[in-house]
Amino acid sequence: MTERLDQPRDVTMRLRPHYDPEAFGRLSEQIARFLGTARFIVYMTVFVSVWVSWNVLAPFKFDPYPYIFLTLMLSLQASYAAPLILLAQNRQSDRDRVQYEQDRVAADRTQAEIEYLTREIAGLRIAIGEMATRDYIRSELQHLQEELGGGDH
């Protein structure tokens, strides 16, 4: 919402922080898209390998063997990744629902046009069926010619 300069400011205190849900949704989709790539798996593998190698080979071990801090870091990453992925899926589901509705409207419109064209073609067939064909006109002319010619004998 844009603030207008000709209106007094609303001085209500907010207890919750304000955020833009659309921007947050776009960010979550970008993160979810990245988490679903091979690049992320490679980065995580390298990160865990370096972490474990450092704590096995280096003289200064900041997270010795059962790697509690590493487990905490990975759990924290997973606890944020899951809701972000769900949020991205929900946004995709909303987009799919809108696309489905638009496709349904377009399909209904196309069906109505097809039905209209079918009725028009049927009308043309009926009209053509009632028209005199060339052979019919020839046969009628021959009958008339015979009648006219038959009266001269």
Note down, in words, how this protein is organized.
It is built from 4 helices and no strands. It has 153 residues and is mainly α. It has a domain at 21-115. Helix 1 (21-35) crosses helix 3. The radius of gyration is 39 Å and the shape is elongated. It starts with 20 loop residues before the first helix and ends with a helix. The mean pLDDT is 89.
N to C succession of SSEs = HHHH
Q: Note the total helix count.
A: 4
Q: What's the β-strand tally? A: 0
Instruction: Determine the structural class based on helices, strands and strand pairing.
Output: mainly alpha
Mean pLDDT figure: 89
Using the CA coordinates, give the radius of gyration: 39 Å
How far do the termini sit from each other?
102 Å
Helix-residue proportion = over 70%
Shape: elongated
pLDDT under 50 segments (min length 5)? none
Percent range for β-strand residues: under 5%
Biggest sheet details:
none
What key attributes describe this structure?
153 residues, mainly alpha, 4 helices, elongated
How would you summarize what this structure contains?
This is DUF1003 domain-containing protein. The protein has 153 residues and is mostly helical.
